[in-house]
């Protein structure tokens, strides 16, 4: 743990994250209040889709992307000086809009991913497509529940995508180019994920590539680069410096996610443990286990990707992850990656407060339990 | 038919449409060439999703929205003078980007709508979700074909949405606000469509509202307003003047679409005739028939919304549409609406060439057979 992070609560997110999250949540609530009022007046039925989206967005989420946007902006806007707790000047309002845009983009990605993975719960609530399928049945409406539920969920995601983009309205062209690219990377990364699970390509190389798109770039590198670009177009050296911090931290984030997906506390993670295994999600964890497993263990691991895995079969696979040393190996890699990320903070041309925040965020990414 | 439109080919789109379409198609092809080269180099599997999107975008489409963008821009940029055939200055390149953005937005909407409606064909090709489900089976991959097919189609649509937005990069804030709003209207309109079909609300009022969002605003009014705004923010009077042309023409477009959906030539329309009836799509055509139908006819119309309607049952419903006079009534309304739209052209502060183009486009919308 770095000295800067020593003050963070042992179990919770650091203040550098919660403070940004609070601002972003206020902004998101204002967006939904405005939009609900506007559409309800025309036709209350239209507001239902927005209410469903508001439920997803307000049901939690760490607002990690918004925090990376904020601290890269603050680090650069603040130069080398220390800064007081943030105020609410025009710059702050703009960066909060962009942070909120990232959270809406994340809601869009989650709602669509949940259809593709047929996940039943998310953040402890039924997923949109599951809730809407149940609504069709409860209302006694016509049609196939699955078709209706997924249709509404596609639209709720599309709406979130459009709102995300609307909040980017004031971003300069340099920031917008990053925004455009990260959305393409996000969709292509998810496509590769889907295709790999279907075709059984659980190789380490593919898992790494998916993780680069979906975690390293989308969650950390691009929010940082975009946040820094909001001040003015960033030099290639600054973009590379942020990548030197964000790439290893993004990998650590993904590895932690993979561990939580099989070893986490279901109530904290918010989705059933074992679902990643049933989906055949390609992870470095599984890739290492496959490399090291003996004959009998290979037989157990072959169950990965079977939708009907029961709890005992999930436990047996997790046992192989432990006995092959794959879990220990992943935990060691997370530690190394966080060290690598933290070492990349010092050369950044950022104020000390922002550097401290980036160190806290790095420790949090590795230590979180949800 | 207005004098300006007399020169158009009896069966084909007018030159004012085909010329814009040709420019937009070149721009789209360049986008796909660039993107395929960029991603293939990294991993050929990533390019598959872009290739699938390119197939959708290049498989036809009238490029009507791009034409409305172009002529509203040209009308205002050109003032009161006549203009030679368009060149390729920076303004032309920008308006072509925006026209291409509308076509990508349309591809996004079609690919997602086809999942919601479970349409098997579009523009004479298998829809994306159907083609991708078949691909899973042909490759012998794991998982449920429907889940995989719909998952890939969701991503192909999302990718198209992101590319559409990237082509809007240079639009000014006034144009961008229209762009943001029309996407929200599009998703909410589709939500109302889905919800009405499920809940059996086939009332005329709901059908009108869905049609306003999905046809009048999205297809005609917003492209016109956005095109005019590319020159400089448009005054409320200009926005209203464009709406006076676009609203009735948008309704005529929808009414024509509804007629083609049940009376059209399957090969020209590109989707099976009768699908609108099987989906229970709320149309003014059906609403009028319901209002006028006697007891026996009501029984026949009650089949609307049944997924398993056979060809004879579709024919019987179409017969009721004719005998109740609903078809004649819709054709009369289309004529009146086009007349109303054309009358709104003269007061516009546009050059004569653009006014002639808007008149040609109005006639085409009413006369088209696909």
Could you characterize the architecture of this molecule?
2 copies of one chain form a homodimer. With 370 residues, chain A is mostly helical. Chain A has one domain: Farnesyl Diphosphate Synthase, CATH 1.10.600.10. Chain A contains 16 helices and 2 strands. Chain A has a two-stranded antiparallel sheet. In chain A, helix 2 crosses helix 6 and helix 9 runs antiparallel to helix 15. The longest helix of chain A has 28 residues. The first copy, chain A, is globular. The two termini of chain A are 19 Å apart. The interface between A and B is large, with 56 and 56 residues.
SSE map:
The structure is a homodimer of 370-residue chains.
Chain A: H1 15-42, H2 44-58, H3 64-77, H4 90-117, E1 121-122, E2 125-126, H5 128-139, H6 145-166, H7 173-199, H8 204-229, H9 236-263, H10 266-269, H11 275-279, H12 284-292, H13 295-301, H14 311-323, H15 326-343, H16 352-367
Antiparallel strand pairs in A: 1-2
Helix pairs in contact in A: 1-2, 1-3, 1-4, 2-6, 3-4, 3-8, 3-16, 4-6, 5-6, 7-8, 8-9, 9-15, 9-16, 12-15, 15-16
Q: Report the CATH topology name of chain A.
A: Farnesyl Diphosphate Synthase
Can you count the beta strands of chain A?
2
Shape field of chain A: globular
Give the neighbour order of strands across the main sheet of chain A: 1-2
Low-confidence parts of chain A: 1-9, 79-87
What's the helix count of chain A? 16
CATH class bucket of chain A: Mainly Alpha
Task: Note the main sheet of chain A.
Answer: 2 strands, antiparallel
Name given to the CATH homologous superfamily of chain A: Farnesyl Diphosphate Synthase
User: Radius of gyration of chain A in whole Å, from Cα?
Assistant: 21 Å
Oligomer state equals homodimer
Q: What are the secondary-structure elements of chain A, in order, as H or E?
A: HHHHEEHHHHHHHHHHHH
CATH architecture verdict of chain A: Orthogonal Bundle
Query: Which range best describes the helical content of chain A: under 10%, 10-25%, 25-40%, 40-55%, 55-70% or over 70%?
Result: over 70%
Strand content of chain A: under 5%
Task: Give the N-to-C terminal Cα separation of chain A.
Answer: 19 Å
């Amino acid at each position: 743990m770095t000295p800067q992070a020593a003050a963070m609560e042992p179990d919770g997110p650091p203040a550098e994250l919660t403070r940004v999250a609070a601002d972003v949540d206020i902004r998101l609530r204002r967006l939904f209040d405005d939009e609900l009022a506007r559409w309800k007046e025309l036709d209350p039925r239209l507001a239902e889709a927005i209410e469903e989206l508001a439920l997803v967005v307000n049901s939690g989420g760490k607002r990690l992307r918004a925090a990376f946007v904020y601290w890269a902006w603050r680090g650069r806007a603040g130069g080398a000086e220390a800064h007081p707790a943030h105020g609410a000047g025009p710059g702050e309002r703009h960066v909060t809009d962009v942070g909120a845009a990232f959270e809406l983009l994340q809601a869009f990605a989650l709602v669509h991913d949940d259809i593709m993975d047929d996940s039943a719960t998310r953040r402890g609530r039924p997923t949109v497509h599951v809730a809407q399928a149940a609504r069709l049945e409860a209302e006694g409406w016509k049609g196939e529940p699955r078709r209706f539920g997924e249709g509404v969920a596609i639209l709720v995601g599309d709406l979130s995508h459009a709102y995300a983009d609307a909040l980017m309205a004031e971003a300069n062209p340099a920031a917008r180019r990053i925004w455009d690219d990260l959305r393409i990377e996000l969709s292509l990364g998810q496509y590769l994920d889907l295709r790999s699970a279907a075709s059984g390509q659980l190789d380490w190389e593919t898992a790494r590539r998916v993780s680069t798109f979906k975690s390293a770039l989308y969650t950390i590198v691009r929010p940082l680069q975009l946040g820094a670009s909001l001040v003015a177009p960033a030099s290639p050296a600054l973009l590379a410096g942020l990548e030197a911090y964000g790439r290893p931290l993004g990998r650590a984030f993904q590895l932690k996610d993979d561990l939580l997906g099989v070893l986490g506390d279901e109530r904290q993670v918010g989705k059933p443990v074992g679902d990643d295994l049933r989906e055949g999600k390609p992870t470095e964890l599984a890739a290492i286990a496959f490399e090291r497993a003996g004959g009998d263990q290979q037989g157990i691991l072959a169950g990965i990707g079977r939708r009907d895995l029961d709890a005992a079969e999930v436990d047996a696979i997790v046992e192989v992850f432990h006995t092959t040393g794959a879990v220990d190996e992943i935990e060691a890699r997370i530690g190394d990656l966080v060290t690598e990320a933290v070492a990349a903070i010092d050369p950044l041309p950022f104020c000390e407060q922002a550097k401290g925040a980036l160190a806290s965020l790095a420790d949090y990414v590795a230590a979180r339990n949800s």
